């Protein structure tokens, strides 16, 4: 399929059954994090994956080609102005030859699965938006997690979502949700949402065995790990900031795919960078765990 290109380094790692961790590009683009934090996030995630002996595979649409694995010389492009590419947009971004389509979790999972990558790291997944009972906005990330045989490592879901309904929807879709060394569903920049998790695993080896089995059944899985303590935000501070950000987005008439980037940007400025620091720390932490998991998975096949 020449509308998808796997980088030589990633292709070689997959062929020789070495560990590979996919990364999305929306978080690194202007839709996810402000500059220069986005560049730092990219560098820290890539370094965390490499230092654990795995190969990073950033996904993106560049010049109309879906790319899996982006060479360092092209990282600059991932940090620029992007059009958001969820799974539904992939064929359009390729057909219309978009210069830079930043892949969300759903598009990244579709590409990772197609390339044969089994582990993917992100910051926080999308989910059921607050007020979804009225407007129906549910991220395509959720069905993509169910459909594609890839393990996603995240700090739970972004806290401006409706987290109880997000967890319910994951159950409905049959997605196993496992807390790595945590007993509650993490809330992105806040360590916990107060929602208890049914399954907790404290050992990466066991996590890998569970993941290996789940992937054989054909669907994906969500591994959650909270933001590191040193950079975690206070739940009350965060929830006040979220209220302000959601109100600002509503006042500007933002809806649909525009909501997440605008709300993230509002929170970034409202917390004068503290939420951004937390976002970088959790993304790096997720990348690190994903790499350890990917390495252990290679010993099982
Ligand atoms: N989490 C972040 N930053 C992001 C996103 C999540 O810390 O930029 C992005 C991811 O790419 C996720 C997307 O897949 O937001 C979800 O968007 P939506 O709610 O429109 O489905
Ligand atoms: Mn949406």
Describe the structure.
Helices cover 44% and strands 15% of the residues. The mean pLDDT is 96. It is built from 12 helices and 11 strands. By secondary structure, the chain is α/β, with parallel strands linked by helices. The chain has one domain: Indigoidine synthase domain (Indigoidine synthase fold, 3-Layer(aba) Sandwich). Strands 1, 2, 3, 4, 5, 6, 7, 8, 9, 10 and 11 form an 11-stranded mixed sheet that branches. The chain is globular. Strand 5, helix 4 and strand 6 (100-103) form a beta-alpha-beta unit.
Topology:
Elements: E1 4-6, H1 8-15, E2 20-23, H2 37-51, E3 55-62, E4 65-68, H3 75-78, E5 83-85, H4 90-95, E6 100-103, H5 105-115, E7 119-121, H6 132-135, H7 141-147, E8 151-154, H8 163-172, E9 177-180, E10 199-201, H9 204-217, E11 221-224, H10 235-251, H11 259-270, H12 274-298
Parallel strand pairs: 1-4, 2-3, 2-7, 5-6, 7-8, 8-11, 9-10, 9-11
Antiparallel strand pairs: 3-4, 3-6
Helix pairs in contact: 2-12, 5-7, 9-12, 10-11
The structure holds pseudouridine-5'-monophosphate and manganese (II) ion.
Manganese (II) ion binds at residues 137, 139, 256-257.
Brief overview, please?
With 301 residues, this protein is α/β, with parallel strands linked by helices.
What is the string of helix and strand elements?
EHEHEEHEHEHEHHEHEEHEHHH
Q: Based on the structure given, which CATH architecture is correct?
A: 3-Layer(aba) Sandwich
Q: Roughly what percent helix?
A: 40-55%
Helix segment tally: 12
């Amino acid at each position: 399929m020449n509308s998808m290109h796997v980088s030589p380094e990633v292709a070689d790692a997959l062929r020789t059954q070495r560990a590979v961790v996919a990364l999305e590009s929306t978080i690194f683009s202007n839709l996810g994090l402000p500059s220069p934090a986005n560049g730092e996030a990219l560098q820290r995630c890539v370094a965390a994956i490499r230092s654990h002996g795995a190969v990073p595979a950033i996904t993106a649409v560049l010049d109309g080609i879906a790319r899996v694995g982006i060479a360092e010389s092209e990282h600059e492009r991932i940090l620029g102005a992007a059009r958001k590419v969820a799974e539904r947009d992939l064929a359009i971004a390729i057909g219309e030859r978009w210069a830079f389509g930043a892949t969300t979790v759903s598009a990244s999972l579709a590409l990772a699965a197609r390339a044969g990558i089994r582990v993917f790291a992100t910051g926080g997944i999308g989910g059921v938006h607050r007020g979804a009972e009225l407007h129906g906005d549910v991220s395509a990330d959720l069905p993509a997690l169910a459909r594609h045989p890839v393990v996603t490592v995240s700090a739970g879901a972004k806290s401006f979502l409706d987290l109880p309904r997000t967890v319910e929807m994951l159950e409905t879709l049959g997605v196993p949700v496992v807390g790595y060394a945590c007993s509650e569903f993490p809330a992105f920049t806040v360590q916990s949402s107060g929602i208890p998790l049914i399954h907790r695993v404290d050992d990466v080896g066991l996590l890998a065995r569970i993941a290996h089995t789940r992937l054989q059944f054909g669907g994906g899985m969500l591994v959650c790990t909270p933001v590191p303590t040193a950079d975690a935000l206070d739940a009350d501070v965060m929830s006040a900031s979220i209220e302000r950000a959601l109100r600002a987005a509503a006042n500007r008439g933002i809806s649909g795919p525009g909501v997440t980037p605008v709300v993230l940007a509002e929170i970034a400025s409202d917390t004068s960078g503290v939420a951004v620091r937390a976002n970088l720390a959790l993304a790096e932490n997720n990348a690190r765990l994903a790499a350890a998991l990917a390495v252990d998975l290679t010993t099982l096949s």
